[in-house]
Amino acid sequence: MKIFVLNCGSSSLKYQLYDMTDEIVIASGKVERIGMDDAILTHEPTGKEEVKIVTEILEHTTAIEKVFEYLVHPESGVLSDIREIQAVGHRVVHGGEVFSDSVMVNEQVKAAIKGVFDLAPLHNPANLVGIEAVESVLPGVPNVAVFDTAFHQTMPKKAFMYPIPKILYKKHKIRRYGFHGTSHKYVSAKAAEFLGKPIEELKIVSCHIGNGASITAIDRGKSVDTSMGMTPLEGLMMGTRSGDLDPAIIPFVMGKEDLTLNEVNSMLNKHSGLTGISGYGSDMRDIEEKMVTDEGAKLAFDMYEYRIRKYIGAYVAAMDGVDVIIFTAGVGENSDILRKAITENLTYLGIEIDQEINRVRSKKVRRISTSNSKVEVLVVPTNEELMIARDTLRIVKSNK
What residues bind substrate, as annotated (predicted)? Predict the structure, then answer.
């Protein structure tokens, strides 16, 4: 079965086309600047030359049509007919409390996605636009919604409730939802497979460390706690997001700096984290390069590492132990300096790292802990698109 995976943003989209016979990507690409007369489409067919065009693309339906046009193009195409696509999997950021698994899209599902627009105003509207664009261009082909929040619906109430008046949960569903669920689900399953152990026997701390970052406690295959909250702002210090802070800071700063709600929201989401502390930006490679001589960069790195380590410790306590710690996503997979700093300060857990292996870069799952280490420490490249494709295949088959 050929499955098209779509990740739709407000002015962009990314895609991968899978042949699920052997789970290979036969084409991938993106469309940027949707809504402009100089939109950019980049199409990468496996085994053929990349295509890059600049053209007018004013809305998502046109963007999808353009992508499909290149999928069947005589020179850059990988399909003889667009109807070879038998299902489409959509990344949907927020499923609220409604969805604990991926689902086949119907009118009720679309209404539910719309119903939580206020919980993910930058993402869910765009995700729904992508679904409706595909329905328009490929009528009758099954669409599956795969939710970032679904994996975390196994969290117990003591973990997802906030200690605020309970009526706010009842009226507005204010609670912890968590994100990056597709990634955490994929890498935890991959780790169990690599170790040759049933996931039901493992306590895993999964560290998805990228520009956006979250840590999840996975007890026997189920998410029992996660660092992001009602929104992706809570938790770790990130590239541009503040993560955890004293909530009283918000009204205090608003009063002192005469900021509006939108301005303080922008400050916390776009101008904080590594960017706010270092003054250089959100790229960990720049931070690591400059921290040797620059105090701001060094402080940013130290704060970043310290907060990750604190969450790991908290989740070891939450699960009463840990068997596996996973590092994944852009920074987690590529920064041996960060992994070294974190694990050197977790020796009380009996962790021992082979620093030579830690420095090796690879796109494969690898163990960086030694044979003497009491906890397995793995680097697991994430693949959210493949997880979406797998879920899409599973849901389509179960609905036949």
Answer: 91
Q: Is residue 331 a known part of a binding site?
A: yes
Per the annotation, does 19 bind a ligand? no
Give the tens place of pLDDT for each residue, 224-271. 999 999 998 999 999 999 999 999 999 999 999 999 999 999 999 999
**How far is the C-alpha of 104 from the C-alpha of 116, rounded, in Å?**
18
Residue 88 lies in a domain: yes
End-to-end CA distance of the chain: 14
pLDDT tens-place string over residues 317-356: 999 999 999 999 999 999 999 999 999 999 999 999 999 9
DSSP β-bridge partners for residue 40: 32, 54
Q: What contacts 265, CB < 8 A, 6 or more positions away?
A: none
Q: What is the CATH number of the domain that holds 243?
A: 3.30.420.40
Torsion angles phi and psi, residue 295, rounded to 5: -65, -35
Which residues are the active-site residues?
148
Q: Long-range contacts made by residues 153-159, C-beta under 8 angstroms, separation at least 24? A: 153/95, 153/97, 153/99, 153/100, 153/223, 154/100, 154/222, 154/223, 154/224, 155/223, 155/224, 155/225, 155/226, 156/224, 159/224, 159/225, 159/318
209 labeled binding residue: yes
CB 274 within 8 A of CB 281: yes
384 is in an annotated binding site: yes
**Which of these, 309, 291, 307, 294, lies nearest to 242 by C-alpha position?**
307
Domain range enclosing 233: 197-384
Please state the length of the chain. 400
The annotation status of 333 as a binding-site residue, yes or no, is yes
260 and 377 share one domain: yes
* pTM of model > 0.90: yes
| Residue 14 annotated as part of some ligand binding site | yes
* Residue 168: inside a domain: no
